[in-house]
């Protein structure tokens, strides 16, 4: 046995070769194998009977370590045969030239042993080298007899016993980190294979997208750093943490730090190469968190800026693809082109939010199109208030991880959009209003006594979304109220206030109407929502439907609307309808509930139960996620407030009467 003494003290060696990253430590032995022209490198985790990892073995089929090379490299710290050559025998790039990588085992195990078969002339020879973590400056070398299986060159490195459990290194997480480190090398040399616990690293199968940036120059505080190359690889799955990997000009990874780049929906690795990074690595500085070298800081800031710009562009591209899919599925909540700059910005934010939801919410992905349409409609309404409030939607509704919520908020802050609605508040108010409405129309305590004027109409005025999201925001229209009053007077007799004479000469009565203006992007166009409210205890028949049709025709023919662009949405809401009405509103090739449908107007007849059921269906998915509960006390309090409002004379009964004919 020959003993070699390194010309360096143990304490000094310990400080230099210590690393907190076991993947980086093991990577040194893989790099040494690749530098020896290995085409197969296996990282083997040897386990005991209980499944615990006892030792780690790195086996390769490279050229091996010769006796002369052992004497040169293991006796001189910081020396390596690689300093004197530019490439391997097979013309591959070289990784290490500092002669330090072999001692990285110190952070993993108590001992390391190398068993190598090498060629000397026409003969194969075999040797072993052993180093203890307690004596890093001492190497024991033995010549060994060739065994029956020693028919080719190669090296086996065994690290044992381990200082702690490294189970995760043998699993998916370790494999993805190895993949990120060796991806550029494996992509460049496709004939090379690296196995981690028997599973090959296969970066090409997991690449979703790759991009090379133009070389650039960064002017730092003390020097100019030239020839900086940057490459980014986007992965189909997790890579164990987004990192920027640094390498010298030969393109071999020397170290890595967290990328800290906002990129929702992307898993990526970035690779920056420059002679400058070789200098940083040679000084062993890539091991330290918060490296404050001013020039490195300047370069890192530029790299992160470029990556941020890249992923914002990629976000836009992927969002466009997703939006097109939503449009084709019929669930995209916007129509046509944006009407102004504000809506354009809102759509951009909506695209970002939808992409985040689509990427991370399993329940959203699994939802049927009708549910997705409802959800996206509500999400659209959420893009109106402030970046912070969206957290409740992303967390409570879509179960996005906090890190993804933070990334999304970071993107929102860059959009300069300050009006994103607090959707949780909006939805909660809708649910409360719906519960109050149910209490009014279904509870026998209120069903027989509720009034259209001052009670139902007040509730409906504040919640026109009940008739559809396009009526979410409607405006009070004094002019329309006057026209409705005029029509009631024209249809009624002078001696019978509020009485309506139908075409056959019989007398009817104009009932309580609610009229609202629906905002429209075309200032020359007007769209109105008119709702006739019937008390929940009433069953209507042909007489009431004919009366409504007369009123519809009369109000549309007013001189105010002749030769103008106007559309009318009429709703008759009642407790029940008879078979005659049912026959009229259940026609073939027409949505159930439509009494009349023309180019300028549509007339719906709905029961309170139908309206409520439709609203519940729209809110069901979100309501369950937000887990909003409305107490009986809250419902009763709000109904009491509505009933007390009649004392003040509020309401919109255009006839001045609230009784039904």
From TrEMBL:
Gene3D superfamilies, per this entry? Histidine kinase-like ATPase, C-terminal domain
Pfam families to which the protein is assigned, alphabetical: HATPase_c_3 (PF13589)
Superkingdom of source = Bacteria
Protein name as catalogued: DNA mismatch repair protein
Say which species the protein is native to: Asticcacaulis benevestitus DSM 16100 = ATCC BAA-896
């Amino acid at each position: 046995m020959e003993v070699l003494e390194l010309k360096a003290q143990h304490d000094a060696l310990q400080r230099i070769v210590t690393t907190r990253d076991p993947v980086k430590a093991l990577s040194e032995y893989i790099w040494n194998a690749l530098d020896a022209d290995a085409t197969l490198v296996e990282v083997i985790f040897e386990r005991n009977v209980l499944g615990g990892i006892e030792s780690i073995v790195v086996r390769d089929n490279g050229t091996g370590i010769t006796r002369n090379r052992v004497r040169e490299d293991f006796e001189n710290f910081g020396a390596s045969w690689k300093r004197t050559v530019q490439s391997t025998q097979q013309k591959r790039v070289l990784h290490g030239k500092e002669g330090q990588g072999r001692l990285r085992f110190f952070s993993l195990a108590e001992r390391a042993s190398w068993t190598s078969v090498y060629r000397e002339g026409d003969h194969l020879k075999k040797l072993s080298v052993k180093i203890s973590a307690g004596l890093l400056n001492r190497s024991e070398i033995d010549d060994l007899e060739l065994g029956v299986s020693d028919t080719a060159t190669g090296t086996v490195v065994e690290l044992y016993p381990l200082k702690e459990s490294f189970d995760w290194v043998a699993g998916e997480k370790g494999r993805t980190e190895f993949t990120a480190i060796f991806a550029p090398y494996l992509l460049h040399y496709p004939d090379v294979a690296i196995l981690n616990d028997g599973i090959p690293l296969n970066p090409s199968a997991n690449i979703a997208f790759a991009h090379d940036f133009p070389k650039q120059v960064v002017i730092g505080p003390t020097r100019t750093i030239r020839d900086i190359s940057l490459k980014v690889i986007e992965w189909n799955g997790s890579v164990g943490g987004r990192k920027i990997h640094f390498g010298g000009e030969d393109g071999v990874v020397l170290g890595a730090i967290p990328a800290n780049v906002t990129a929702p929906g992307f898993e990526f690795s970035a690779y920056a190469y420059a002679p400058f990074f070789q200098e940083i690595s040679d000084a062993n500085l890539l091991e330290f968190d918060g490296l404050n070298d001013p020039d490195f800081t300047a370069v890192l800031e530029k790299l992160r800026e470029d990556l941020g710009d890249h992923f914002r562009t990629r976000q836009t591209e992927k969002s466009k693809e997703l939006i097109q899919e939503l449009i084709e599925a019929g669930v995209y909540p916007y129509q046509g082109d944006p009407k102004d700059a504000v809506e354009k910005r809102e759509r951009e934010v909506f695209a970002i939010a939808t992409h985040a939801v689509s990427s991370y919410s399993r329940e959203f992905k699994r939802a049927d199109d009708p549910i997705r349409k409802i959800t996206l409609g509500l999400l659209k309404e959420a893009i109106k208030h402030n970046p912070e409030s969206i957290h409740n939607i992303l967390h409570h509704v879509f179960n996005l991880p906090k890190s993804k919520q933070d990334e999304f908020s970071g993107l929102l802050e860059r959009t300069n959009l300050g009006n994103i609605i607090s959707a949780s508040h909006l939805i909660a108010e809708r649910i409360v209003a719906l519960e109050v409405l149910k209490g009014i129309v279904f509870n026998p305590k209120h069903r027989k006594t509720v009034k259209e004027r001052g009670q139902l109409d007040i509730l409906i005025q504040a919640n026109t979304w009940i008739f559809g999201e396009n009526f979410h925001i409607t405006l009070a229209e004094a002019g329309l109220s006057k026209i409705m009053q005029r029509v009631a007077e024209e249809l009624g007799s002078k001696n019978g206030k509020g009485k309506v004479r139908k075409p056959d000469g019989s007398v009817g009565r104009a009932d309580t109407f609610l009229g609202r203006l629906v905002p429209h992007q075309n200032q020359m166009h007007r769209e109105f929502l008119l709702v006739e409210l019937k008390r929940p205890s009433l069953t209507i028949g042909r007489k009431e439907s004919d009366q409504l049709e007369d009123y519809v025709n009369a109000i549309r023919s007013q001189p105010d609307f002749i030769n103008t662009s106007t559309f009318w949405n009429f709703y008759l809401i009642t407790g029940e309808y008879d078979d005659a009405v049912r026959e009229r509103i259940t026609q073939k090739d027409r949505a159930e509930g439509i009494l009349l449908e023309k180019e300028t107007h549509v007339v719906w007849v709905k029961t309170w139960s139908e309206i409520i059921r439709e609203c519940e269906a729209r809110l069901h998915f979100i309501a369950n996620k937000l887990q909003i509960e409305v107490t009986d006390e809250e419902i009763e309090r709000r109904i009491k407030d509505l009933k007390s409002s009649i004392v003040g004379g509020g309401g919109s009964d255009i006839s001045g009467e609230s009784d039904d004919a």
